[in-house]
Amino acid sequence: MHDIRKLGLQAFAAPDGMTGQAQIQVKAREIDFVTTFGKNMQALLDVMGITRMIKKENGSVLKTKKVTGTLKSGEVAEGDEIPMSQYKVEEHTFDTLRIQKYRKGVSLEAIAERGYEAAVEMTDEEFKADLQNVVLDKFYSQLKMGSLVGHEATWQMAIAMAIGRVKNKFETMKRTATGVAVWVNTLDVYKYVGAADITLQTAFGMQYVKNFLGADIVFISSQIPENTVIATPLNNMVAYYVDPADSEFVKAGLAYTTDSTTGFIGFHAQGNYDRAISDMFAIMGVRLFAEYLDAIAYISVGDKDTQTLGALTVTSEAGSEAGKTVLTVEPQIASINNVYKYKEAAAATAVTYGMDVKNWAKWDGASEIPATKDNHITVVEADQNYKAVRSGDAVVKVKA
Predict the structure, then answer these.
(1) Rounded to two decimals, what is the model's pTM?
(2) Lower CB count within 10 Å: N or C terminus of the chain?
(3) For the domain bounded by 310-395, which CATH number is listed?
(4) Is 163 within 8 Å of 231 (Cβ atoms)?
(5) Using one digit for the tens of pLDDT, what is the confidence trace for 308-344?
């Protein structure tokens, strides 16, 4: 037998790898983060009538659709052959669904100065809100590309016509709109209701009211420009996600806590002893998406269209040959009829919505471009009439 007195206090130490109170608290924090994010997201999907998220592989291509065709006349003489009405659905690559990686750190000094709740828990909430905005910003960006453009004299008429246009579009596509969602600017709503009270609800950071002004649901946001109404059928919207609990990630030692019910986001917290920082990591590939761009109405109030210029994220990397650059543009081109145009200059070129870029250089979206190091390349996505709809800029990098 061993003499317990000779073993000292080590005999009573906790075994290595034991799950203690600290580990339980961290795990509870991770579970709370992913659960609340998932519930908030699911609440928005329920409001939109999206019954489930569609699981996709990382790197999946997202495509928009466009229906073309004409109904042939039904006036057919006796015995004549009945003409066939032909419709076709054109698909065009719009963007790629990828896992995105995020990180937040809180220093030991911040925790000591402000306390755990203020330094960690409150910043967790901000982190979560910012991740929600990542999803919403991309969705708003696509909504603003709606091709059913027009203008009306009053705000109420703009809403009515936006609803009418998208319902009519779905009818021509031989589809029935299950309902219509409308997006309007916050100030426009309060100009209209004045002192009247309206009860707003919130889901995933989006404020809304149901059965308002003829729409099944009206979303109210400062993301929508003033004097602008956007609408689309509820069943034009889908939601995609990449599973953050992918077994391949786990095999690589990257195990994130996920919500087993939704699985929209992965979250992990750990201490970084090298820097005395509490590190928080999140990964997600979540996308709200409108399948048919030509079933999104963008109606402005006034005597002209007020559609705003969309944003492109342009990056430049050194090409395979000296003096050439490789450009990457996100999101990808929105319509099969649209083209890329670019201009190189010492500074970024200012672009406005509808600006004529016919005389700019054409780019196929893939070829390397001859350019001068540290110059700016401004890339424009233009419609079939060479009018600018989206724009972005990058500082040129070339192979020496």
Answers:
(1) 0.71
(2) N
(3) 2.60.40
(4) yes
(5) 788 899 999 999 999 999 999 988 776 667 899 999 9
